[in-house]
Amino acid sequence: MLKVQLEPVVETRMTRMLLAVFCGLSIFSVFFDSKHMWAALIWVLAGMLWIGLSYNFSKNNLNGHIGNYDSKLASKVTQYCIGHGILLSAGFLYFGYDATVIQIMAMWSICLTVIIFLPLLLPLSPRPAVFFNAILVISMSGLFIWRGEYFPALASLGISFIATKVYLQNAKSGVQYAFSAIALHEKSETVSLLLREFEDSGADWLWQTNKSREIVHASPRFAFAAESESADMEGQPFLKIVAADNWDSGTYPKELNILAQKLKNREAFSNLVVPIMMNGKKRWWELSASPKVDEAGKFIGFRGVGSNVTEQRESAQKISRLARYDNLTNLPNRLQLNEALELAMREAEKWKHRCAFLMIDLDRFKAVNDTLGHPVGDRLLAQVSMRLKNIMTPNELCGRLGGDEFAVVIRDARETQKIEEVATKIINELSKPYIVDQHTLFIGASIGSARGPVDGHTVELLMRSADLALYRAKSRGGNAHESYKHQLHAEAEEKRQMEAELRKAIERNEFHLEYQPVVNADNEHMLVGFEALVRWTNEKFGRVPPFKFIKVAEDARLIVPIGTWVLRQACKDAVKWPGQTKVAVNVSVDQLTEPGFIDVVTKALHDSGLPAYRLEIEVTEGIFLNDGKYATSVLERIRALGIKLSMDDFGTGYSSLGYLSNSLFDTIKVDRSFVVGAAQGKAESIAIIRAVVAMAQSLGLATTAEGVETEIETQMIQQLGCTKIQGYYFGRPMPFADSMELFENQNRRNVA
User: Fold this and answer.
1) Residue 96, CA distances (Å) to 99, 132, 142, 711 in order
2) Spatial distance between the Cα atoms of 322 and 318, rounded to a whole number of angstroms
3) Beta-carbon neighbour count of residue 424 at 10 Å?
């Protein structure tokens, strides 16, 4: 407050001194050549001296101390004004006592001039002016009243009152104005400071154009971003700087055209991201600006900010790519495939044609992962993806769904044979050998296809239809293509319901065992054992064939509890058979590799009392594909318990000669397909059976021929040297009670 009030005192001190000199000379001229001339001269010189002291005080104590004023300085200024008023009043009273009317009126006019002009010289300091005014007016009014001249006295009081009111109003308005100016200045300084900090602390920059859209201000950061100098940029078209390498070619991205239109229409814009090709490198700038007008409302240009968002843009693009592409194969992922299929279905519905979705599952890939490790599997998937990508046309999009599952979207599949052609091409290409880390690998591909919208009017339904078709292709043995048929949904629903019933089958006691006899090949009447076969009778589905519910149980991972029940029940039944009769129980891969399987076997033997040598565990060659080392260790522990081991369906799968040579097994079972072929005189089947028998004899193993149904087949098997025979010719699978009757019949024959 003091700073605002005292600043004008400093600024007007010279004017006040000149006014005092003028008034002093004027008064001296009034009394020149009169009896009061010398007194007037002394009075004027005294006034000059007082004004000089005031000027000197102002110079020494006020000037240069802006912002450091205190109340003592303000009081000193008031004292000087009071002293000046007393000095002027004293002269007025002294000379006015016997002055002429002309002289006193001249003095009065000069004093009124000082009263009137003082608010202009001390606009923001009303207190010194009011004191000066009061002292002078009281003296003048008192003198006029003493002389009996009431009008000048009244006029002096009136002028003094008005002057005082003007002092106060001017001071109030002046102080408010001064404070507003200070606030505006501080705000401007703050904005300038913030702008400097804005540029110094971040990657943003400032720019400004004139009405011709030419740069009139380019901040150093803007110049740095444009790889130029601020001075060189000024006067250049703003669009030329932003267009960079594209300026000469005249080919602009659409974002730059939008920017040009905004500038042309004098429209504000915010966060407009523009691609910049500068010195062969692509960058991204984010620009914001608003049009500016002068006091008359005329457009004078744009003022705005910009920033280099290349890093953020590239990061966003990378994140977007990670969200839409598979990281291992660089193929579109499930999200992008879904989007592509959705678009293809919309187009198909719009133009009344068909699209298609192919779901691909790699055959035998799990064996590669399990035997050679996941790194080799990953490199194999990378090669698969390259082959798929190379055979795609613009009409197809291939991608990876996850694991070893891939998919293809065919945008236009109005020709049915087109789907078959694509599927065949994929199967042929993916079935070719692969070289991965010096390993030659062979896999295949199973494909299920569905056409949209006839096989599903939504993406989810169409993909489900393709998945059902794929399941059918896999059930055919793989390396095949199956197109969707409407009955697959019915089969899938039946499978779902069957799975639900299977989960409750053990609790409901719906399973039972049937036993198929195994006889000695040299003596067909000598019963050596039975194979336990599980059967399921359900209230809803009736008697369900094993080939149907076993597959459902495997897919639903119910085969382990079912297999455990079979093993326990078979041991309980077998202990009731006489002599050395054995029972053979099939064990699946899932059972064998289940932790605690050995405990399940030992508990079944212990609870039933069946000797270990009378239990025979049958496994297929497939157990060695998933985890051969673990399977071998489990089989060795089973054999160490005294349990017999049998390899079922030998020769139909993958070579297991290495495991046979390690003497893991006691029996080799020859598949029915070779038995039928040998009976029909096929040289290949006969040669295979002879080779198996010879190998078994050399290793000290027994051989069992499966599926013998006729006398001719029996004779052929006996001639080829198999040691045991199993098949309908000697007995179909039967309930346990019927198996007991076989022993009674055999005893009667022996007695006879």
Assistant:
1) 5, 19, 11, 167
2) 6
3) 13
